[in-house]
Amino acid sequence: MTMAILVIGATGKTGRPVVEALSARGAKVAAASRDPETGFAGSRTDGVLPVRFDWADRATWAPALEGAEALYIVGPYAHPTGERLVADLLAEAHDTRRVVLLSVIGAELLPEEAMMAHWERAVRASGKEWIILHPNWFFQNFGTGFLPALRDRGVLALPAGQAPVSFVDTRDIGEVAAAALTEDGYAGRILTITGPDALTHAEAVAMLGDVAERPLAYQAVDPEQAEADSRAAGAGERTVISQRGLFQVMRDGGNAPVTDVVQRVTGRAPRSFAQYAAEHAELWRELNAAE
Question: What range defines the domain where residue 263 resides?
Fold first, then answer.
């Protein structure tokens, strides 16, 4: 029997690939976002129902949850009391029997301000069939949040040291999540999702420079300086503390292991960083390169 699936955070870095992977499987999908009218155009998501959902507006919860037998949840990172909201949502999800939560590698090691451990406890205690995803850092960060620094200044400065990271493509996360949402056999499991190899940020940035045909560099930044820079840029203290924990896990080697989850779940090898770089080479070229 086909379940009705609600994807929360459907226009985000992982939400959109989850919707696309579910749509490719012929699943009955509702794509939840704050602005559903503009979120999903195009043939890759034909048949997907856009619905309005806003973590900050509880009046949107019940209409979005109605009839949803399975949920994909991207938690409310930006909400000031977001640690409580996943538990509150699950208490209202009366039709839901399966929950797939996006978390992060090392969630149990992060400070409480990071919220992921709160959300994991909530899904475990919900009485529903749960699966928790622990993906590594995304390839796509280099084409979104890291993009201005790389394209405009040619240098990515982070407090990551020289730690190797088995970066992963969000499309692979989407396909693993789609399997967990639609297939049996994953209940009560944490799926740690990585790419096929571990690279330092310096190695990854060098690959981007090769495909963009320009010099790009990585600069390791002192963690305390990175925090000061974040505060100066307007980041809230909760964000600063969360980032501190994430980069500490990375520098301690927590993001280095490579798993076979993508291969086992999807039947194919995970996408490589080299593939991602080649597909998007134009992103990291200088804006005035043609002038």
Answer: 4-138+168-195+256-270
Q: Which CATH number is 188's domain given? A: 3.40.50.720
Query: The tokens of 14 are what?
Result: 């992982």
Separation CA 239–CA 110 (nearest Å)? 12
Q: Is residue 222, in this structure, part of any structural domain at all? A: no
What's the first-to-final CA gap in the chain, in angstroms?
57
In a domain, 63, yes or no: yes
Give the DSSP H/E element, type plus range, for residue 232. helix 223-232
How many distinct structural domains can be found in the chain? 1
Residue whose C-alpha is closest to residue 51's, from 59, 69, 39? 39
Q: Is residue 148 part of a domain?
A: no
Name the β-bridge partners of 7. Answer: 31, 72
20-72: per-residue pLDDT in tens? 999 999 999 999 999 987 766 543 566 799 999 999 999 999 999 999 999 99
| Whole-number Å distance between alpha carbons of 269 and 260 | 8
pLDDT in tens, 244-279: 999 999 999 999 999 999 999 999 999 999 999 999
* CA-to-CA dists, residue 28 to 172, 182, 249, 289, angstroms: 20, 10, 37, 45
Q: What is the DSSP string of 68-107?
A: -SEEEE---TTSTTHHHHHHHHHHH-TT--EEEEE--TTG
